[in-house]
Amino acid sequence: MESSIQLGKVMGIPIRLHVTFLLIIPWVAYLFGSVSANVFGKLYGFGAVEPPIIRWVYSLVFAVLLFVCVGLHELGHSFIAKRYGIEIRSITLYFFGGVASMEEIPRNPSMELRMAIAGPAVSGALGMISILLYAQSESLLGKNHPFSILLWTLGIMNIILMIFNLIPAFPMDGGRVLRAWFSTRMPYVVATKNAAALGKIFAVFLIFLGLFTLNFLTLIIGIFLYIAASEEDRSTTITDSLSGIKVRHIMSKDVKVVPPEMSLSELMRLMFYEKHRGYPVMVGDELVGIVTITDLQRVPESLRDTTTVGDVMTRNIYVIGPEDEATAAIKIMGDKKIRRLPVIEDGRLVGIISREDLLRAIELCSDVRL
Ligand SMILES: [Zn+2]
Predict the structure, then answer these.
(1) Which domain holds residue 284?
(2) Residue 353 CB burial class (10 angstroms; 0-12, 13-18, ≥19)
(3) What is the C-alpha R_g of the chain?
(4) CA distance 283 to 287
(5) What value does the mean pLDDT take over residues 272-300?
(6) Which of 150, 183, 254, 344 would bridge with 319, disulfide CB 3.0–4.6 Å?
(7) CATH classification of the domain holding 326
(8) Are 84 and 111 in contact (CB under 8 A)?
(9) Is-contact 81 114, C-beta < 8 A?
(10) What is the pairing mode between strands 88-94 and 13-18?
C-alpha cells in the first residue's frame, strides 16, 4: 500500500503510518485539549490547562504518545509471534489503531491465545506504569500540573485500550482469545464462525449506538469491525474448504504456450479464439515470462503488428509446484496481485493454475463439506 509512510524498524519490523493517521493526531489532540473531567478525583484531559499554548502543546504530545502506546501494543503481539517463528511483514498505524500484518498464523490454540493476550497485556502494563509515574509526579509537581494530567490521562487511556481489546468479539484480541478457547472444543472453522458471529453482533450494536447518539466515530468503528469479522470468517472458510487440495488437483494440465517472437496481433487473435487471458512464454523448454491481456492492452492497436510478446511480457515470474497446497497458490496470487501461476516440476512446465481454477475449487469443495 503506497498510502503509508515508513517510519523506521523496531525488532526488524517496518513501522508504517497510514495517511488517515496524520488526520487523527490533530483530532485526538483537539478532543483531549477540549475535555477536562474528573476520573477518580483526578484531572483527565487538558481542557482546564492555561494558557492555551501550553494546553495545546500537551494535547499534541499526548496524542503522539497515545499512538506510540498503540504501536507498542502491536509490538507486543509481534514479539510473541516472532518467538513462534511467524514472520511479521509490517505494523501500520491507522486512524482506528495499529494493525500488524503477518503471515498466516498456524492453528495452534495455545499459541494464538498467547499472541492475542500479549497486546492487551502491554496496554495494561503501560497503563500501570503511567499511573505509577503519575503518583510520583503528583507529589513532585502537584496533581493539576499539566505533566501530571498527561500521565494520568495516558494511564486511563491505556487501561481503556486494554479493556476494549479484551471484548470477546472478533476481530478484537478478545475475539481471538475466544476462538482459541472455542477451538479446543470444536473444529477450527466452527470456532471461527462462532467467534465471528459474536463479533458481528457487537459491531451491529456499535453501529446502532453510533446512529442513535450521532457519534460518527462509533459508527465508523462498528462498520470497520463488521467488515473485519466477515473477512476473517470468509478467509478461514476458504482455507478450510481447500485443506488437503493440492495444486495438481485443480491446475490446467493442457497448457497453451506462446513464443516470445509472436506479434501482439497474433496473440490477440489467439486469446480471442482460445478464450485465455494469459499465456506462459517459452523458448524451447525454458519458461521465460508470462504475457496477459493487460500487457497486450498497454500497447496501442496500431503498434501491435510490430510489437512482440517478448517486448511486453512479465519476466519476473512467480511459480508453484504441483505438490504445493492450493491455499499456497491463493496466498502468492493475493500477495503479488497476479491472476495465474505456472506450475513447475523438475524445471519443466507441467500446468498452470488461475484464480478461476481456485474459485471453482472453493465453490465445489465448500458445497461438499460445509
Ligand atoms: Zn491487539
Answers:
(1) 247-369
(2) buried
(3) 26
(4) 7
(5) 87
(6) 344
(7) 3.10.580.10
(8) yes
(9) no
(10) parallel
Q: Domain check: are 45 and 150 in the same one? A: yes
Distance from residue 116's CA to the centre of ligand 1 (Å): 6
**What was the pLDDT predicted at 2?**
56
Residues 182 and 324 in one domain: no
With 60 as the cut, is the pLDDT of residue 368 above it?
no
Q: Same structural domain for residues 227 and 268? A: no
| pLDDT, the chain, mean | 83
- Residue 135 pLDDT: 85
* pLDDT tens readout for residues 177-233: 888 888 888 877 788 888 888 888 988 999 999 999 988 878 888 888 888 788 777
Q: Which residue has the higher pLDDT, 108 or 296?
A: 296
pLDDT digits (tens, 9 = 90+) for 92-125: 877 666 677 766 666 778 888 898 899 999 999 9
**Residue 232 shares a structural domain with residue 263:** no
Separation of 232 CA from ligand 1 center, angstroms?
Answer: 15
Same domain, 102 and 12: yes
Q: Are residues 254 and 237 in the same domain?
A: no
Please tell me which residue in 74, 103, 112, 325 is annotated as part of the active site. 74
Known catalytic residue: 104?
Answer: no
What is the whole-number distance in angstroms between the Cα of residue 74 and the centre of ligand 1? 6
Q: Do residue 201 and residue 61 come from a single domain?
A: yes
Share of the chain above pLDDT 70, in %: 95
User: Which amino acid, residue 367?
Assistant: D
pLDDT on residue 104: 65
Residue 253 Cα to ligand 1 middle (Å): 44
Q: Ligand 1 centre and the CA of 366: distance in Å?
A: 31
Span from the CA of 286 to the centroid of ligand 1 (angstroms): 47
Say how many domains are in the chain. Answer: 2
Look at residues 210, 241, 272 and tell me which one is the last residue of a structural domain.
241
Residues by chain with Cβ below 5 Å of ion ligand 1? 119, 165, 173
The band of 1, judged by pLDDT with boundaries at 50, 70 and 90, is very low
Task: At 171, list the grid cell.
Answer: 476481530
* Whole-number Cα distances in Å, 69 to 83, 167, 246, 268: 21, 19, 43, 55
Instruction: Answer with the one of 212, 241, 270 that is the final residue of a domain.
Output: 241
- Ligand 1 mean position, distance from CA 122 (Å): 9
